[in-house]
Amino acid sequence: MSILNLAQLATIIGASATLLALFTVFVQLKHLRRANFILAWNAVKENLQNHDVRLGRAICRKLNAKNIFHSPRDSFPTGTMWDSIFRSLKHDFGNESWYRELSKMDLKRIRSKLESCVCEAYDAFDLAAILAWHSRIPGLWDTVVAEWEDGIIHTWEAGAPLLKRREISSRQELYECFSALYVTARLRQQLGRGLYPYTGAFRKLRLYRPLWWKAKQALRYRKLAMRSTRCDAPETH
Length: 237
Prior knowledge:
By secondary structure, the protein is mostly helical.
């Protein structure tokens, strides 16, 4: 074999080794990104499925039931409305010990408990938004919005007095990440589920190439999240 042939063979082997190394790095990065997504998703899911957070979301949904114009609430309701909301929760939570115990208390204690649960839900969504925003994990932001769209909207609008309290007390952190999450949820609601990740035919998106691509990516990440947790999709309330 001539020296020229040996040089060509060495070049081919070197190029093959480089391609193999690049492929290995690509696979490792892909698995690392997947692992990061699963870890972050599980943290968000665990936080939002906390008992008091779920109760807070249910309360916000009832507080916001007639808010057809999606305006943020100016203040929390009066005592009589809290009592009405507490009674309406009996269908879902009446068999739980905390509900039976609280039903024996006066209206002031009931109001304090329900309002604290609203605070829990508001803080939980803000924490989820902070994690999704600052971690920059691809797909996490849209996955959170799609799974908890209604809960995000109702909680932000019904819990708006909490934001106003922070403004009055001159707090620097004013739930910016949660507010951004709310804007995304409202955008998804306005566009319609056929024009946003996870639902509807992708052929409808042919005029919206960036959104179409985002939808396909988000769908892939959602499937990954559902498969990793081995459970049904989280509540959308």
